[in-house]
Design goal:
The structure holds two protein chains of two kinds. Chain A is α/β, with parallel strands linked by helices. Chain A is built from 14 helices and eleven strands. In chain A, the strands form two sheets. A nine-stranded mixed β-sheet of chain A has the order 3-2-4-7-1-8-11-10-9. In chain A, a hairpin with a 2-residue loop joins strand 5 and strand 6. In chain A, helix 3 (89-102) crosses helix 14. The mean pLDDT of chain A is 95. Chain B is α/β, with parallel strands linked by helices. Chain B has a single domain (1-349), classed as Peroxisomal Thiolase, Chain A, domain 1 (3-Layer(aba) Sandwich), CATH 3.40.47. Chain B has helices at 23-38, 54-57, 62-70, 85-98, 117-121, 137-150, 156-169, 212-218, 246-254, 272-281, 308-322, and strands spanning 4-11, 47-51, 78-81, 103-111, 187-189, 192-193, 202-211, 223-232, 264-266, 292-293, 327-334, 340-347. In chain B, the strands form two sheets. A ten-stranded mixed β-sheet of chain B has the order 3-2-4-7-1-8-12-11-9-10. A two-stranded antiparallel ribbon of chain B has the order 5-6. The chains are: A alpha/beta, B alpha/beta. Chain A: This is Acetyl-CoA acetyltransferase. Chain A: Residues 243-372 form the Thiolase C-terminal domain. Chain A: It comes from Streptomyces kronopolitis. Chain A: InterPro entries: Thiolase (IPR002155), Thiolase-like (IPR016039), Thiolase_C_2 (IPR055140).
Chain lengths: 388, 349
Amino acid sequence: MSKEPVAVTGIGQTAHVAARRDVSLAGLVREAARRALDDAELTWADIDAVVIGKAPDFFEGVMMPELYLADALGAVGKPMLRVHTAGSVGGSTALVAANLVAARVHRTVLTLAFEKQSESNAMWGLSLPIPFQQPLLAGAGGFFAPHVRAYMRRTGAPDTIGSLVAYKDRRNALKNPYAHLHEEDLTLEKVQASPMLWDPIRYSETCPSSDGACAMILTDRAGAARAPHPAAWVHGGAMRSEPTLFAGKDFVSPQAGKDCAADVYRQAGITDPRRQIDAVEMYVPFSWYEPMWLENLGFAAEGEGWKLTEAGVTALDGDLPVNPSGGVLSTNPIGASGMLRFAEAALQVRGRAGAHQVDGARRALGHAYGGGSQFFAMWLVGTDAPAT
Amino acid sequence: MREVAIVAFGQSAHVRDSAETSEVEMLMPVLHDVLDRTGLAARDIGFTCSGSCDYLAGRAFSFTMALDGVGAWPPISESHVEMDGAWALYEAWVKLLTGEADTALVYAYGKSSPGDLREVLTRQLDPYYVAPLWPDSVALAALQARALIDAKLTDERELAGIAARSRRDAQSNPHAQLRGALPAGVPLVAPLRTGDCPPIGDGAAAVVLAAGDTARRLTARPAWIRGLDHRIEAHSLGVRDLTDSPSTRLAAERAGAFERPVDTAELHAPFTSQEVVLRRALGLDAADGAVRINPSGGALAANPVMAAGLIRLGEAAARIHRGDSDRALAHATSGPCLQQNLVAVLEGE
């Protein structure tokens, strides 16, 4: 039984800023959805179902907000699903939506992810109260910093690698009008002199807290044929999960991430990701995660990821551009961050990424992760329709 | 469309307060139960999907610890919905339809005991115009009941009858929280009495799905999912006709429920008045009383929030497994006053 090929024909995102005080939650999601519909030249009536994702509901203080957002997203009378897989949720949400088309349950699906972090304090929202977690584990940085340190120790990477990633991503963000941080006067020296937050992670190597939403229109072959602009085709997609904590867990390079990438590459016929993939949008909330994920995703051998970063391979004009959009380090509405990675990968292969377009990108990887480096979602999109 | 069936169902005992057990401890025996019924190990499962809600647990990412109960090592293909487990089943069903997996484990759990459920559920409402007023779930259901009575679609005597029938049926359900003859009780929010309202409690449930011949291999009489659909309505109560459930009717239509009569219906109606709405939307009153409604006792006997919808699908499937039903309808709901509804049609071979 063959699956229906899935195409991305519409992409929309909001301007991402620290606080979108000008819009309600409904206004925020509708802005992204409206832009995705416009990109696909579709109306609300063309949408068969809505799949929405976001990270913990405590960030906005609304329990299961999709119930309230049904009207704003034109979902009344339609199926509406709400996904929540921690930080990977934006990616997982897109994959759940894609499966509705692949299984031929629906023909055209709106998928959307958002976070309006200004409604609360995300860092403390992520710091679980006793008895769920030990005290002093403040925010995601507190959780991930020891694993970055482990990576540095394991690979002997120079201390400066993280700052190179942060500087590159923030420079890329200057070419992305939707990015939250536009730090025109940032220099590498300023990154390296920024305050230490969670050793070895400095302030400028940390993602911001953003309000924002991202939406995509996913459709079948017939829908793609009617689309006004080139589609991005889904060549592979997968999710993998492993427990938060267990004896033998490798936090530096989790098995679930490796398995997820291997599954996607198998579906997409990728045997040499470094050569066959033209652009990568990976989930890098703390700078050091670029070299770590380069290894986990098979772009570099173990212990070698930092060398690609250091050599400029991952720069916008390098031969494996990573996060041309500026990535999570420049824009982080948590629930939407994964979908932004998926959408930016799709923009690249559609040739619609604007000033941060990677020349000639035909295959791009979108990557998201969440929880304690335990939930992974990825898709590989291409300019050409997949061979079926 | 690929044939997919529910091949096993399990649930915990539903209790008022499970303070002594964590979510994982509540869930694990249930997961082992459904896996044992099929002879499958966790590693044999192609896809895992769960439903739960952080607002019940009172902590972010509450589902991540529950995953420990599954034993997700080596890593598994897995997803989670912040919805009732019935929608997790829907996601898993779609996954099986794609052919990417042949089996799926679906589970859901909810502990209402840590907080005040009526207060907690107010956080589900429009955060700008309604939630600040803190109208609780019983008050909203009472509005719906009042609308039904005013429209002469039911009366307090019928509602009391639904309550009595549900708890009587629950006598043969060892998992139920409320069983046997109960007084109609005192008015809680008029016109609803305590007897019209569900018990507040904690519980978990799980099902195993399988496709085609795998399903036939795993159980003697699979409960085939002939149709499955869900629809949502507007959120604002002011723009809805609370005496009707067009989303339930549409989902049932899309699921093929009206093509042939069903012999059983498991309706997720936490309030007696909501059963009236659902029976009308699904045309279950038109028959000659031939449809057995909520033989498990329904949500009026046990209502672990986030699992209660999945339990309706599981109970309907279990009746097919046992040979007590040939064609059953199962329904799940979410949101205030039946805002979102899912309908499944299950059949024996």
